[in-house]
Amino acid sequence: MGTKAQIGFHETLADRPVAILTQHNDGHPTGKSGVMSELMEICPSLLKRYGFYEPAYLAARTLVMLALRLDERKEDPHNVWGYTVGAELRDATRFYYAVTKEGVHVYDARGMVDEDLGKLEDIEEMFFTAWVNDDERRELEKEIATTDASLKAMKLRLESLKRNGALV
Fold first, then answer.
1. Helix (H) / strand (E) containing 6
2. For the segment 58-84, what is each residue's pLDDT rounded down to a tens digit?
3. Predicted local confidence at residue 80, as pLDDT
């Protein structure tokens, strides 16, 4: 049995989700076929294509895209419909992903109850991943590359100073 997760589509974290998709397998945030990699690939392109955030619409389109991907992988013919749609937090859910117009908020769902879904802003999240458009991504990648190069130069300088006895 895989890791069960639920993906809720919210207007804001203070609102109950308009729809919740339950993923019965591969619900862990990490991994190549994990929930985060799927959401980060599907949702930003849908948001860019349609130009607005409507949680119910995004939930429906995401479910279709996820089902198509399961079908393409043909891993298990019984798992093609490995998702269910509902409006409540289910027992035995390990992770809860709150999708908002800002990005994906990830929560440890153990101990969460259904009433918590309308007040997620008061619950500590495991992590948050913001939607980033292509232009922002390229700028961030440039900034990271520049910072990495600067750090490497500083490390080389520090090692040189240590070798020459300038630092004790």
1. strand 5-9
2. 999 988 888 777 666 555 545 445 678
3. 44
